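[job 4471] stage=fold_predict status=RUNNING
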Amino acid sequence: MSTENTINGYYEVNSNTINSKKDSKFKGYFVGIVISSLLSIFAIIVLIPEVLVTVHAGEKGVLYKRLFGKEGVQLDKVYPEGLYFVAPWNKMTPYNIRVQQVIDPITVLSSQGMKMDIVLSIRYHPEVEEIPFLHQHLGPDYADTVLIPEVEGIVLSLFAKEDLTNIYTDIYKLIEKANVLVEADLKEKHIIVDELIVKSINFPESVLDAINEKIKQKQRALGYTYRLESELQEAKRKTIEAKGIQSFQSIISQGISENYLKWKGIDATLSLAKSNNSKVVVIGSAKNGLPIILNSDSNTPVKDNMNEVSNLPNKKGL
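[job 4471] inference complete, writing structure tokens
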């Protein structure tokens, strides 16, 4: 009886030991599973941005391969907008192909060493078909490393060759020239510069006053030159006019006689006598031999006209 109890008791103790071992083993597996799951989730969270790459609107993608086959930047393909699965050992870089703007304040020097503060506006975008080469040679931060320094260098070199007055009066011509140089230089680097604009320029106040005074004096001198030219032209015109009148009188004097003038005077008198406003016409022999026309005012009586006739010193022919 006791022996049986001992055996039963032994088996009972042994069974509990086995169950405890199973529980311990399960707990060990459970902890491992939890840790593995957490590590997997963490790895997925970390790798998702590298594996799933979105090329947004207005962007193009460039793929860089680290392993397997052709390594390096994939120069023969530009990836359009969309979602791409990229192997973890590769890397895709999106590039903004829209027109972008950068504001660049710089200080330039004239040929006399005078300082001016200029604010430039640079509008640019990468050359779409050349983006893989841009990525290989310059990288995504090409605006800071290449674009801005190149523009600043060209503008500084142009302004350093001009004096302050030329810069003040021909600022837009200088910027137009800078546009041509910048466009040609950066196109070789796969960057398109749409336009280079001067947003503002500040001259020293004393220099600005001196330039304005110089411009006023220049305009005044141009005004004097214009007046002188005008007077010379007017003198030439009057000389030509006088010669024309002299020539006209010379030609006319050769064909007009005294009798011809008397005849024209009589003819004009007859024409006036026929008009409604003519009242008294006395035909006589005056000093010049022409008829005498008395007051033709319709409100003056004929009697008054006759009195005026009687008072004339020459009464012949009345």
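[job 4471] summary: The chain has four domains: 25-98, 100-203, 213-255, 258-310.
[job 4471] exit 0
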